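Collaborator request log, item 7. Partner lab (contact: R.S.) asked for a structural prediction of DUF4290 domain-containing protein to inform their binding assays.
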Amino acid sequence: MSFDYNTTRSQLILSEYGRNVQNMVKYICELPTIEERNKYAQAVIDLMGFLQPHLRDVADFKHKLWDHLHIISGYQIDVDSPYPKPLIENAYIKPAHIGYPQQRITYKHYGKTVETLIEKAMREENPEQKKAMVQGIANFMKMAYVTWNKDNVSDETILKDLHDLSGGLLRLEENVNLAKVEFRQQNPRQNNNNNNRGRNNNNNNGKNRQNNNNRRPNNNNKPKY
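Returned to partner:
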């Protein structure tokens, strides 16, 4: 008795369609007439679309299915495709490398966006608008500091960092109050303990009331004289 293992099978070209589809495509390639190949190829295309419903959201998904059919066949299937046959050379073309911007960030917990906002605020000519922008930037800096450093921060630290990032060109009044932001570390285990403690207290109160009722003297058992 022989067993069919995956290690002895042919390579699965597009695993998202499964081996059965690949076997069907292989069978179509061996059909003698173009009419038969076209008929069964259309049936396999419908099956592939059913197996991959998310492709329906892709633009021109029928074209993609026919391209996959050619790829599964190893570019050997001979059918009347409604789309141009894909070239095997295109499968080995690598996409162009997307360069990652290398920019120096002074304070990484504030990010590059804060530096960009500070540059725009420095170019603002309207005094009232500039003051509002600086106030908003400082509030955002405080929120970002608390988010990434997991600790509370004083307004003096934020104002000093704003002064350094702007080269001393942006500043707020010394008595200004920034938006109140606090970091509160939540401990799920502690919350569960508190809930359990409340349940235990309720249960204990119920048991105590029951015990007190049991300790009450029974007047019916008193001796009669």
